[in-house]
């Protein structure tokens, strides 16, 4: 049986929905706000901005992060920029155009109303960040500068060198610090959420473990906000930080929250290729490099081991420029990634193992001079040199796609509330705005839109009906959840097998990259669905975690996260199998156009797939949210 | 490549620690320093010894989590860069490498190579921000900022908050960290209304946390992964003197 979901999208014309919704939502008066406790899990752009803003409004906020400081959340690693429809360049940009680019970029698998709101809010995010002192790049006039990014034909990306995520995160970290000092936000660093507590069908608290001391705690609240990022580390190798994990959202799923579109994962086209099996993570080279770099491989297989300088112009295949003349090297991420895979599959890939393509700056250096390129991308070139030992001013960079972002996440309605009342999900952790593929410079925009401007407006709409309903942390539901958490930790420590946590994680990652990575097919997915439970069973029989649960035990931390990945991976493959079409980052080999582009099936699959947990060992139940396109015309994406 | 590692092992804050020798073999020169420690931990686990605790997260030099002293140098020999950006090709085959945590009194040792840097958060909480409530901001281009000032502010703002500056300083001073934040915000017009209060309170909390004073040895600048210039310390001193003076004048 398939259930249907209601996203509670406000009525009225698209451009007026958000305004009129705000006019009619319930409010909490300033004197009552301090009577509400709100839990925010995660301190990245979404969680940090939400916690700071709710604190400013006068709510009592508890903010949790697993890092040793909220400033280290993984948003900090975002390089390229943040989009906004300011049209400072006078090049034809508008809120509608940003909305349209984002819907199209997402291959028509996101909600019109959410995306329009995001585009609308984009402009005040820039205002807010400038007011906080974010040092965006400027022109000599003193006004803000822009650059262009994949998937759009206007320059709307604001940036702070190659460290935009860092600067935006520090802006919201500083706002958060101000609230911590003011006493409205209580910060719990190095504390991990291990379960969600549901009381009378509503999310009313969490169970946490202090990573420092191992202490398990109960936290009751009037609402819980998850801002815990994406699940890209299910692949083991990704551009995510080592600590990024699915645990918070997966635990919420096991408590009844629906998980939407888990198969929608983004493979970023420009990462430094894998160099060996000891490798612990992959490093992204910002997509902004594609503004000035040209992507190519040799035309002939035989040339692939030649030094790039010895391959004459005529023997090079600038395949993105050839296949997508109007977008060229700025084709969207999913398309660029698959194109790279294709040329490497043909045996024309370069570097060790033949899994790489060149990103060449020679033309740009000739045209603009090395100084300009250094000014634009200097730090990225330095990172590249550190990792590979090569100087990209002299020889072309080698790049290859890697897992970077996950569009799927917990299902939320227009108010960013999950199907469980009181549980809100923001930033990468939810599924709502990027459809089947995210455009560059849109993740920072979404995180901050959710945290600074959407949630602070929609959360009171829920809280207004919750006065005095916060359960005490000694109620039975908290006891039951804490019991589950403790039992699981004990179980992990008691297996005492022979294999390390990382070895299981690596094996799972390779399996998924192979069967549920850049391209998928039914046979491979069915194989994965058979192998994942076997691997999981082996994990619980043979994993080795040393040390105790009473102190700083990094292996125990990772073991819990990998155990969740081992369950979540199955959900991902189930979703990938169910979505019997290609859309954005989800490429099913069975569904492609004659020239190898993703072929959607709007008749059957223009919908969000949200999965409900039915118990361990049971198949999850599918809920569909049909996607209505009232403004945008559904079309095959073309970047030619 | 093969290495002998001398690693600081310490159970917790209260216990005393010591250097313990370990050997690692067959390490590719393209392995990062932290991946080499991963390999060691895998080996320790195999023989039933508890792995070495060390912090890291992004492993690309931006989150500021990793914090090792390698052969006596904060973040190791490859400057500028965090220790996660250090690769084994920088070492001689067969070398002995000593690995310790950042040694700063204000950063207590949690376990092995892991330290507690919450003192840095407290310095920022004291005033390292601009009080701009969400929703209250003017249009972004209504405040033009000369490119030079904005670029200089960005140079200061690039600090990753790792604490290597304090670890390298013979006085264990966190002046470079504090100077970077004070400079970033005071170089921008948006930061001016809170300029005096900010520098006075941040310096007060920095002193109270137990960091030492600056005596201009510039070790901080030499190890800073974000290449923060020590000239920002002069800027901090000027900002501090200015604020004190204005306060005395009763402004």
Strand content of chain B: 5-15%
User: How would the global form of chain A be characterised?
Assistant: globular
Distance between the amino and carboxyl termini of chain B: 64 Å
Total of helices of chain A: 17
The first-to-last residue Cα distance of chain A is 41 Å
Mean pLDDT of chain A: 95
Largest beta-sheet characterization of chain A: 5 strands, mixed
- Please state the overall shape of chain B, judged from the principal axes of the Cα atoms: elongated
CATH topology of one domain in chain A: Methane Monooxygenase Hydroxylase, Chain G, domain 1
The CATH architecture classification of the largest domain in chain B is Orthogonal Bundle
Q: Report the radius of gyration of chain A as a whole number of Å.
A: 24 Å
What structural category characterises the helix and strand content of chain A? alpha/beta
CATH class of the largest domain in chain B: Mainly Alpha
Going by helix content, strand content and strand pairing, the class of chain B is alpha+beta
Q: What is the CATH first-level class name of one domain in chain A?
A: Mainly Alpha
For the secondary structure, the number of strands of chain B is 7
Strand line-up across the major sheet of chain B: 2-1-5-3-4
How would you name the CATH homologous superfamily of the largest domain in chain B?
Answer: Alpha-helical ferredoxin
Oligomer: heterodimer
- Kindly estimate the percentage of residues of chain A that lie in beta strands according to DSSP: 5-15%
- According to CATH, what is the topology of the largest domain in chain B? Fumarate Reductase Iron-sulfur Protein, Chain B, domain 2
Summarize the structure in words.
The complex is a heterodimer of chains A (640) and B (251). By secondary structure, chain A is an alpha/beta fold. Among the domains of chain A are: 271-402, Succinate dehydrogenase/fumarate reductase flavoprotein, catalytic domain (Flavocytochrome C3, Chain A, domain 1, Alpha-Beta Complex), CATH 3.90.700; 476-626, Methane Monooxygenase Hydroxylase, Chain G, domain 1, CATH 1.20.58. Chain A contains 17 helices and 20 strands. In chain A, helix 3 (45-57) links the parallel strand 2 (37-41) and strand 3 (60-64). In chain A, helix 4 packs across helix 5. The two termini of chain A are 41 Å apart. With 251 residues, chain B is an alpha+beta fold. Chain B folds into two domains: 3-114, Beta-grasp domain (Ubiquitin-like (UB roll)), CATH 3.10.20; 117-248, Orthogonal Bundle (Fumarate Reductase Iron-sulfur Protein, Chain B, domain 2). Helices cover 35% and strands 12% of the residues of chain B. Chain B is built from eight helices and seven strands. Chain B has helices at residues 33-46, 118-125, 147-157, 164-168, 175-186, 195-208, 219-223, 231-248, and strands at 3-9, 18-24, 68-70, 73-74, 96-101, 109-111, 114-115. In chain B, helix 2 (118-125) runs antiparallel to helix 6 (195-208), helix 3 runs antiparallel to helix 5 (175-186) and helix 5 packs antiparallel against helix 6. The radius of gyration of chain B is 21 Å and the shape is elongated. The mean pLDDT of chain B is 97. At the A-B interface, helix 3, helix 5, helix 6, helix 11 and helix 12 of A face helix 1, helix 2 and helix 3 of B.
């Amino acid at each position: 049986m398939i259930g249907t979901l209601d996203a509670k999208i406000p009525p009225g014309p698209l451009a007026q929905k958000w305004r009129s919704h705000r006019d009619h939502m319930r409010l909490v008066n300033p004197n009552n706000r301090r009577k509400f406790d709100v839990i925010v899990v995660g301190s990245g752009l979404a969680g940090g901005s939400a916690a700071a803003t709710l604190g400013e409004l006068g709510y009592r906020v508890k903010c949790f992060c697993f890092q040793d400081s909220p400033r280290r959340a993984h948003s900090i690693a975002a390089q390229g920029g943040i989009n906004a429809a300011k049209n400072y360049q006078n090049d034809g940009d508008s809120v509608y155009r940003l909305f349209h680019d984002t819907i199209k970029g997402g291959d028509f698998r996101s909600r019109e109303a959410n995306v329009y709101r995001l585009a609308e809010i984009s402009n005040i995010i820039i205002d807010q960040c400038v007011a906080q002192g974010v040092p965006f790049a400027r022109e000599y006039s003193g006004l803000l500068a822009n650059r262009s990014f994949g998937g759009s034909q206007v320059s709307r990306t604001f940036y702070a060198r190659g460290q935009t995520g860092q600067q935006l995160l520090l802006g919201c970290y500083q706002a958060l610090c101000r609230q911590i000092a003011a006493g409205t936000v209580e910060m719990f660093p190095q504390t991990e959420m291990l379960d969600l507590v549901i009381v009378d069908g509503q999310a009313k608290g969490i169970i946490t473990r202090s990573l420092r001391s191992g202490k398990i705690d109960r936290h009751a609240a009037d609402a819980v906000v998850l801002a815990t990022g994406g699940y890209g580390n299910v692949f083991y190798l990704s551009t995510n930080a080592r600590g990024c994990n699915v645990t918070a959202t997966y635990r919420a799923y096991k408590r009844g929250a629906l998980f939407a579109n888990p198969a929608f994962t983004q493979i970023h086209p420009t990462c430094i290729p894998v160099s060996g099996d000891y490798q612990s993570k992959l490093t992204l080279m910002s997509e902004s490099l594609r503004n000035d770099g040209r992507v190519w491989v040799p035309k002939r297989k035989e040339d692939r081991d030649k030094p790039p300088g010895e391959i004459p112009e005529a023997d090079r295949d600038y395949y993105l420029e050839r296949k997508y003349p109007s977008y060229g090297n700025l084709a969207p991420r999913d398309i660029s990634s698959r194109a790279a895979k294709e040329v490497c599959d043909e045996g024309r890939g370069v570097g060790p193992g033949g899994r790489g393509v060149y990103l060449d700056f020679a033309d740009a250096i000739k045209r603009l001079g090395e100084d300009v390129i250094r000014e634009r991308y200097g730090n990225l070139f330095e990172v590249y040199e550190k990792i590979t030992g090569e100087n990209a001013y002299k020889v072309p960079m080698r790049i290859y796609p890697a897992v970077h972002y996950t569009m799927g996440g917990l299902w939320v309605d227009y108010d960013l509330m999950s199907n469980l009342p009181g549980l809100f999900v923001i930033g990468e952790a939810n599924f709502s705005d990027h459809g089947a593929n995210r455009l560059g410079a849109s993740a920072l925009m979404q995180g901050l839109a959710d945290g600074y401007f959407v949630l602070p407006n929609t959360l009171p709409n829920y809280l207004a009906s919750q006065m005095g309903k916060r359960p005490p942390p000694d109620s039975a539901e908290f006891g039951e959840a804490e019991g589950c958490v403790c039992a699981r930790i004990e179980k992990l420590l008691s297996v005492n097998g022979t294999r390390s946590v990382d070895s299981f994680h690596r094996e799972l990652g390779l399996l998924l990259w192979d069967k549920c990575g850049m391209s998928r097919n039914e046979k491979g997915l069915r194989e994965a669905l058979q192998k994942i439970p076997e691997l999981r069973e082996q994990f619980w029989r043979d994993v080795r975690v040393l040390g105790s649960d009473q102190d700083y035990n990094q292996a125990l931390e990772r073991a819990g996260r990998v155990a969740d990945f081992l369950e979540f991976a199955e959900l991902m493959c189930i979703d990938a199998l169910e979505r019997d079409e290609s859309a954005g980052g989800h490429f099913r080999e069975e569904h492609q156009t004659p020239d190898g582009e993703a072929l959607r099936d709007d008749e059957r699959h223009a919908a969000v797939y949200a999965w409900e947990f039915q118990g361990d060992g049971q198949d999850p139940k599918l809920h569909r949210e049909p996607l209505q396109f009232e403004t945008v015309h559904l079309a095959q994406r073309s970047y030619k | 490549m093969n290495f002998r590692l001398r690693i600081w092992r310490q159970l917790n804050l209260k216990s005393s620690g010591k250097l313990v020798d370990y050997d690692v073999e067959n390490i590719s020169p393209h392995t990062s320093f932290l991946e080499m420690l991963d390999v060691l931990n895998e080996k320790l686990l195999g023989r039933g010894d508890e792995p070495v605790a060390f912090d890291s997260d992004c492993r690309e030099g931006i989150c500021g989590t990793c914090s090792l002293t390698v052969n006596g140098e904060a973040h190791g020999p490859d400057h500028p860069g965090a220790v996660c950006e250090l690769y084994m090709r920088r070492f001689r085959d067969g070398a002995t490498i000593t690995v310790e945590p950042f040694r700063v009194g204000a950063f207590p040792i949690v376990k092995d190579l892991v330290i507690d840097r919450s003192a840095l958060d407290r310095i920022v909480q004291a005033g390292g921000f601009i009080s701009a409530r969400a929703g209250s901001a003017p249009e972004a281009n209504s405040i033009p900022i000369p490119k030079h000032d904005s670029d200089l502010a960005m140079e200061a703002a690039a600090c990753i908050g790792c604490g290597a500056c304090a670890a390298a300083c013979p006085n264990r001073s966190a002046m470079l960290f504090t100077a970077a934040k004070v400079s970033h915000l005071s170089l921008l017009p948006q930061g001016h209304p809170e300029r005096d209060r900010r520098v006075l309170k941040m310096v007060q909390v920095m002193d109270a946390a137990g960091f030492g004073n600056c005596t201009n040895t510039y070790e901080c600048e030499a190890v800073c992964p974000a290449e923060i210039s020590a000239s920002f310390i002069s800027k901090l001193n000027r900002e501090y003197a200015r604020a004190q003076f204005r306060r005395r004048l009763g402004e």
